[in-house]
Amino acid sequence: MTRLSAMARALITAAAVLLASTALTPTAHADTEPKSPKDFVALRSVDPTILQEMRYVTPHNFVGERIDGYRQPLCILTRPAAEALHQAQHTLLRKGYTLKVYDCYRPQRAVDHFVRWAEDLDDQAMKGEFYPNVDKTRLFADGYIAAKSGHSRGSTLDVTLVRLPAKPTRPYRPGEPLVPCFAPQGERFPDNSVDMGTGFDCFDTLSHTLDPRIQGHQRANRLLLKSTLEGLGFVNLAEEWWHYTFKPEAYPDTYFDFPVSRTSLTGAH
């Protein structure tokens, strides 16, 4: 009996060690992931009324698949940027509009994913929508893809306007026919954004905020977004009507790589 009891105890101990090591593996992996500084927040904790359509969590983007580092459909920003965006939303709601973000903080691993995709000249699955007139060999030279992104510093976002009451945007169906991002609004993917002249992430000079070919209500929509955000400290990237950076940046020289996930946030959120 004593010998059997000793063997039983040994087996139980071994099993317990195995279970413990197995249970700890995901936690240990999570603990090794980088975390955000405490002044990064989920935008919803600052303004839950701003719409979020986080494109890089979905396959509806120029790569055609979920992008590395996007674990949840979550807009993360430095707190000053989020609070300034909240002020912009307060102004726009009184005018019958809401903001909608497509992307906010972007981990460096996502930027690396973009670079790998751009270097693979055989992968042109999404060309018909996002870069129909651009040769993929020109993406780096023309500035559409770069090894570093201001999004990784935490104060940059991609944003548009939606007229209230907001209509839902139907889900993208992988493999559906692609329509050029600069086609008339009624023909391109049915985003619920106001007509900005092109869709989001359109690799074309028509996306330049002040391109003279964009006139009428399309130009007025771009200027409403621009004037509202610039009045609160945001700076527009001239080549992309949707791209804004809050200044001064909290981390002007740091490119973060923590995943887009609530578990990455270390402050109150």
What does this molecule look like?
There is one protein chain. With 269 residues, the protein is of the alpha+beta class. 30% of the residues lie in helices and 11% in strands. The chain contains 6 helices and 7 strands. It has helices at 2-32, 43-46, 79-94, 108-119, 127-130, 216-230; strands spanning 40-42, 51-52, 76-78, 97-103, 156-163, 234-236, 243-246. The strands form 2 sheets. Strands 2-4-5-7-6 form a 5-stranded mixed β-sheet, with helices on one face. A hairpin with a 6-residue loop joins strand 6 and strand 7 (243-246). The termini are far apart. The model is unreliable at 1-28 (pLDDT under 50).
Fold blueprint:
Layout: H1 2-32, E1 40-42, H2 43-46, E2 51-52, E3 76-78, H3 79-94, E4 97-103, H4 108-119, H5 127-130, E5 156-163, H6 216-230, E6 234-236, E7 243-246
Parallel strand pairs: 2-4
Antiparallel strand pairs: 1-3, 4-5, 5-7, 6-7
